[in-house]
Amino acid sequence: MGFNFIDIENWNRREHYLHYMNNVPCGYSFTVELVIEKIKNERLYPAMLWLLTAAVNEFIEFRSALAKDGRLGYFDSMNPTYTIFNPEQKTFSSIWTEFNSDYSKFLVAYQKDTDLYKTSTGMTPKPDCPDNVFNVSMIPWLKFSSFNLNIWKGDNYLLPIFTLGKKYTEKGVLKLPLAVQVHHAVCDGYHAGCFIEALQEKINNWLGTN
């Protein structure tokens, strides 16, 4: 897990970063409809975890964070930390799985983790969570067109947060709502647009386990 410090004084985003960190601490969220026809025969949650991570790892803006000493930088790569549901207790836990560029290997690790912690009632039962993780959750019971997280005292949290909704069919096309929350200090609308474009392209070019 490498972490690369950014020289803010010589950074082309210096003014933007300082403005959205100090003057107007600001994050924003948006919701998109992903076309998921190419992954309709896959297990949706692990496939989307893998696709999101693969896309996140292509963009510094989605890997930017503050080190423990407060200095800005970005991780070399990220892993997903995600929620799993305990149907008996009606509670969720948040666990993490190390990313692997080979989806089949990632799926094996995902299955191992979910099998181990699926009956947990703790919020973070899997130990030793690394720093280079980003948050994903899924609400498979709810089809939404807009979703917003109200994060109090989260001005210094720069990593993205993703929320997946209930898949649905519209005019014969299978779709999935995805809500994205980012910090404006490190991620502008341009970067967000590029990310969604890259994510959709990865879905369209899916090879998976087929």
Descriptive account of the structure:
The protein has 210 residues and is α+β, with helices and mostly antiparallel strands. The protein has a single domain, classed as Chloramphenicol acetyltransferase-like domain (Chloramphenicol Acetyltransferase, 2-Layer Sandwich), CATH 3.30.559.10. The protein contains four helices and ten strands. The protein has helices at residues 14-23, 44-56, 103-117, 189-204, and strands at 3-5, 27-35, 64-66, 72-75, 79-86, 91-96, 133-138, 161-164, 168-170, 173-183. The longest helix has 16 residues, at 189-204. It is globular and about 50 Å long. The two termini are 31 Å apart. The model has no long low-confidence stretch (mean pLDDT 96).
Distinctive features:
210 residues; alpha+beta; Chloramphenicol Acetyltransferase; seven-stranded mixed β-sheet; three-stranded antiparallel β-sheet; 4 helices; 27% strand
Can you identify the CATH superfamily? Chloramphenicol acetyltransferase-like domain
Distance between the termini: 31 Å
Task: Report low-confidence residues grouped into runs of 5 or more.
Answer: none
Our Rg estimate from Cα atoms comes to: 17 Å
**Count of domains:** 1
SSE ordering: EHEHEEEEHEEEEH
Share of helix among residues?
Answer: 25-40%
Helices and strands, with pairings:
Blueprint: E1 3-5, H1 14-23, E2 27-35, H2 44-56, E3 64-66, E4 72-75, E5 79-86, E6 91-96, H3 103-117, E7 133-138, E8 161-164, E9 168-170, E10 173-183, H4 189-204
Parallel strand pairs: 5-7, 7-8
Antiparallel strand pairs: 1-4, 2-10, 3-4, 5-6, 8-10, 9-10
Helix pairs in contact: 2-4
